């Protein structure tokens, strides 16, 4: 499977045994829950990772519990001694207040437990200790609740903030001051009238980002969809951050919520009948809006991704196969950090590269009737921050990441060039144990050196792996360093077509940015004012290097200080490279002076440093210098690794080739790899490790 799922939480394993044990300790036996185990379900996942769940006993009483993801312990929060159905629940950070909305149980013969004339009851409960219960709403429409969980040092907070989301298409924020009484007991101050304010209204869709404390919602203005985002802060303040037009079709009569907990009110079996919409961000300042309209054909399905941080959208149309391959589930979008996964059970799995979405070959599209397209649960899934996936039906919370073993195996089996390209980049994005991954890729390259026609395997490996080696240093690297050796891709991907369109950028509503918003703003400014050639290339280095070599041949020389500075740069790179590799080398590299290659390495250091200093404003010079040394030494190290792997595979001794005798099959194979390295580095004008092995390769 392309994704590896590790269960962080399982309702049946982490909660149910404890409830049975508690029931037995009370003398009621396990049967008190056995007949009602189906009522056990997850309600919400709070910002700190704690999971709120509910269940009923044999009398229909509603219990609220919390699973602490850090201690792996369960805590009973509150019992509502009436047979009602829970719509929504949330707990504040200190676990002193619980908010819940409930509706009349659907069981026949039950009397109305709610206030007369009301359909939904929204309560605020003091639970430390259990004390007063305040009715926030008693209305004839559904209400969802969500406490804000700010990142602050103060503990406990003197004021809590609670969002109420109404089916009537408005959102309110309640401000709840608390005071301590009788030691650690917490009660609501002035509970008779809690301050509140309208946050949003007249929306048709809303999504809560629990990790970043953001509210996204869509308004319809003159039948045009407008996406808005509100950022909540530690105090009671909040800001409207941006507005962005969306070219999607949403109905004014519709109402849909994302990440506001799970409720049985929604018919989970009819997901394919409604449009799917969600917003994903990551730490690099990306902003993706994923959309799939209502399914209107059994032969194909369409979905769009708006890459606002890149200024364009892509609309994909995927074939579904035969007409009898009926779609019973809707599309699922999953946020996987540098990727967004688009999943349609039984049909396809599309892993979209959101940092580099321009070329379709950098994203992986899997289809067929094998386990690849049945890798995830078929029930409704909720994508949470940190690559977490919540399966509402089973009550399991998974942590998802790319399955390196599967991807490496797929790399060996791939037959089409676009598959090789996509999987190569997926593997390189997995930054754990990079030495192992690089060794496996080099082994694959050596066996398939001539099997790729659309791009050069060695070039792509060196460029992409060098990029990923320093990308985490700063999110701006995707604009400044090459990600791929391929600039265009015109080959179609079987089973899918796409249309790329420019889109209007979000209109930022604030003028001071920090954290994620600073990075998003930087990305948007780059789209507006980007220089046509901001990616680094070695064209200047090529001219300067040829000029220096020409001067050397004619006896002319630049100032000794200039040349010495360039050679000093090369010494720093080679020292860093040698520090990476402490074992004796098999290949005859770095064994004597090679001024031509050292000049090239030193020139590349100088030029790349100037390039980054021009564009990375605000990053200190020493850090940039270190990044440059890391980047160039990584490129040389990759070439050394390829040579070493080839030498080791063919059991060659550390000598230099001679051309005055017939070469063995092993020597010929290694020589072939060397010539391919020279071809790959020559067109990109990449430096080579100094030594007799490559001493005259550029001349």
Automatic annotation (TrEMBL):
It comes from the Eukaryota. InterPro entries: GSAP_C_dom, GSAP_fam. Residues 636-691 form the Gamma-secretase-activating protein C-terminal domain. This is Gamma-secretase-activating protein isoform X4.
């Amino acid at each position: 499977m392309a994704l590896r799922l590790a269960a962080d939480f399982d309702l049946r394993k982490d909660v149910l045994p404890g409830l049975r044990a508690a029931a037995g300790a009370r003398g009621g036996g396990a049967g008190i829950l056995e007949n009602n185990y189906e009522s056990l379900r997850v309600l919400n996942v709070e910002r700190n990772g704690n999971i709120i769940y509910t269940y009923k006993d044999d009398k229909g009483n509603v219990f609220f519990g919390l699973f602490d993801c850090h201690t792996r312990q369960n805590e009973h929060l509150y019992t509502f001694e009436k047979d009602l159905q829970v719509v929504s629940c949330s707990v504040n950070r200190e676990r002193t207040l619980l908010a819940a909305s409930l509706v009349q149980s659907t069981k026949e013969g039950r009397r109305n437990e709610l206030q007369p004339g009301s359909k939904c009851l929204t309560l605020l409960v003091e639970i430390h200790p259990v004390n007063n219960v305040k009715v926030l709403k008693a209305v004839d429409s559904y209400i969802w609740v969500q406490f804000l969980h700010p990142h602050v040092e103060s503990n406990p907070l003197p004021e809590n903030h609670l969002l109420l989301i109404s089916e009537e298409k408005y959102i309110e924020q309640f401000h709840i001051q608390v005071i301590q009484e009788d030691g650690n007991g917490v009660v609501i101050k002035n509970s008779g009238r809690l301050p509140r304010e309208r946050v949003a209204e007249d929306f048709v869709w809303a999504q809560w980002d629990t990790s970043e404390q953001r509210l996204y919602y869509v308004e319809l203005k003159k039948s045009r969809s407008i996406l808005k985002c509100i950022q909540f802060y530690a105090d009671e303040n909040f800001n409207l951050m941006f507005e962005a037009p969306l070219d999607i079709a949403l109905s004014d009569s519709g109402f849909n919520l994302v990440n506001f907990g799970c409720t049985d009110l929604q018919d989970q079996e009819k997901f394919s009948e409604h449009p799917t919409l969600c917003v994903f961000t990551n730490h690099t300042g990306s902003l993706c809006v994923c959309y799939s309209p209502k399914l209107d054909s059994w032969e194909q399905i369409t979905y769009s991704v708006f890459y606002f941080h890149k200024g364009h959208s892509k609309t994909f149309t995927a074939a579904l196969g035969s007409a009898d391959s009926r779609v019973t589930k809707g599309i699922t979008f999953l946020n996987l950090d540098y990727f967004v996964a688009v999943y349609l059970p039984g049909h396809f799995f599309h892993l979209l590269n959101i940092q580099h979405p321009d070329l379709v070959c950098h994203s992986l599209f899997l289809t067929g009737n094998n386990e690849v397209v049945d890798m995830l649960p078929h029930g409704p899934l909720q994508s949470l921050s940190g690559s977490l996936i919540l399966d509402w039906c089973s009550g399991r919370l998974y942590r998802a990441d790319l399955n390196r073993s599967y991807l490496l195996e797929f790399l060996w089996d791939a037959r089409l060039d676009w598959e090789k390209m996509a999987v190569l980049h997926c593997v390189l994005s997995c930054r754990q144990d990079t030495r192992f991954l690089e060794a496996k890729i080099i082994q694959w390259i050596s066996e398939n050196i001539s099997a790729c026609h659309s791009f050069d395997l060695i070039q792509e490996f060196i460029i992409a792996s060098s990029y990923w080696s320093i990308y985490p240093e700063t999110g701006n690297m995707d604009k400044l360093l090459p990600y791929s050796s391929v600039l265009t891709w015109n080959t179609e991907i079987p089973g899918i077509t796409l249309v790329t369109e420019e889109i209007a950028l979000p209109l930022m509503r604030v003028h001071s940015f920090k954290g994620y918003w600073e990075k998003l703003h930087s990305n948007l400014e780059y789209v507006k004012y980007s220089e046509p050639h901001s990616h680094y290339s070695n064209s200047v280095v090529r001219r300067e290097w040829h000029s220096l070599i020409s001067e050397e041949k004619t006896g002319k020389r630049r100032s000794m200080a200039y040349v010495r500075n360039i050679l000093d740069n090369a010494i720093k790179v080679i020292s860093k490279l040698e520090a990476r590799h402490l074992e004796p080398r098999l290949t005859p590299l770095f064994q004597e002076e090679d001024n031509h290659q050292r000049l090239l390495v030193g020139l590349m250091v100088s030029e790349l440093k100037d390039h980054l200093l021009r564009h990375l404003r605000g990053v200190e010079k020493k850090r940039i210098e270190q990044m440059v040394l890391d980047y160039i030494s990584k490129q040389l190290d990759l070439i050394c690794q390829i040579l070493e792997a080839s030498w080791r595979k063919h059991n060659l001794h550390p000598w230099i080739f001679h051309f005055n005798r017939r070469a063995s099959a092993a020597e010929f194979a290694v020589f072939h790899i060397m010539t391919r390295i020279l071809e790959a580095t020559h067109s990109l004008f990449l430096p080579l490790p100094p030594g007799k092995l490559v001493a005259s390769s550029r001349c």
